[in-house]
């Protein structure tokens, strides 16, 4: 449980930093366009931050049981069938995130040799969000599967 708390805090802070930087960069873009000043790389950096924020945020949503797939289908069945649906949905998620992780690593490694146009960063840095998020999500799914379906319902999506 201590590892889980550390991972959640780390992911939360990474998301906070990403959204803060994203806000500042977009504000800078708006101001620079108003003043007819071109700042190279800001659009690409904003895109990079959105990609990482989206995937890391989805991992946090899995942990907090706010991911739509985790709760929606489980709550749609009678209480005595929830355990089976909960396990089935989580097995589907494990399959999805397993594929995302394996192919994400493959894509990241393959694209490390090409660089982004403006920032000249390896494109693999963009794609690395897929396997990193996949690993976090898989960990959180396995941790969450130890709970019973009624405990795991949380306050997430209905």
What layout of secondary structure does this protein have?
Elements: H1 2-34, H2 42-63, H3 68-75, H4 82-110, H5 124-127, H6 129-144
Helix pairs in contact: 1-2, 2-6, 3-4, 4-6
Task: Write a structural description.
With 158 residues, this protein is an all-alpha fold. The protein has one domain (2-144). The protein has 6 helices and no strands. The chain has helices at 2-34, 42-63, 68-75, 82-110, 124-127, 129-144. Helix 4 packs antiparallel against helix 6. The protein starts with a helix and ends in a 14-residue tail after the last helix. The relative contact order is 0.15.
Pick out its properties.
6 helices; elongated; 158 residues; 71% helix; mainly alpha; disordered C terminus
Summarize it:
Helix content is 71%, strand content 0%.
Low-confidence stretches: 154-158
Q: Can you write the helix and strand succession as a string?
A: HHHHHH
Span from first to last CA? 27 Å
Q: Cα-atom Rg, whole angstroms?
A: 19 Å
Largest sheet: none
Strand content: under 5%
Strand segment count: 0
- List the total number of helices: 6
Helix content: over 70%
Give the overall form: elongated
The structural domain count equals: 1
- Average pLDDT works out at 88
Secondary-structure-derived class: mainly alpha
């Amino acid at each position: 449980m201590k590892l889980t708390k550390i991972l959640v805090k780390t992911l939360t802070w990474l998301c906070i930093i990403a959204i803060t930087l994203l806000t500042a960069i977009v504000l800078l873009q708006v101001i620079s366009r108003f003043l007819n000043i071109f700042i190279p790389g800001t659009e690409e950096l904003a895109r990079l931050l959105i990609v990482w924020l989206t995937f890391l945020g989805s991992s946090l949503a899995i942990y907090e049981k706010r991911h739509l797939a985790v709760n929606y289908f489980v709550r749609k069945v009678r209480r005595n069938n929830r355990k089976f649906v909960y396990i089935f949905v989580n097995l589907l998620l494990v399959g999805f995130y397993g594929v995302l992780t394996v192919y994400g690593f493959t894509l990241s490694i393959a694209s490390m040799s090409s660089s982004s146009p403006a920032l000249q960063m390896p494109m693999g840095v963009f794609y690395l969000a897929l396997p990193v998020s996949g690993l976090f999500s898989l960990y959180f799914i396995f941790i969450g599967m130890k709970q019973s379906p009624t405990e795991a319902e949380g306050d997430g999506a209905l």
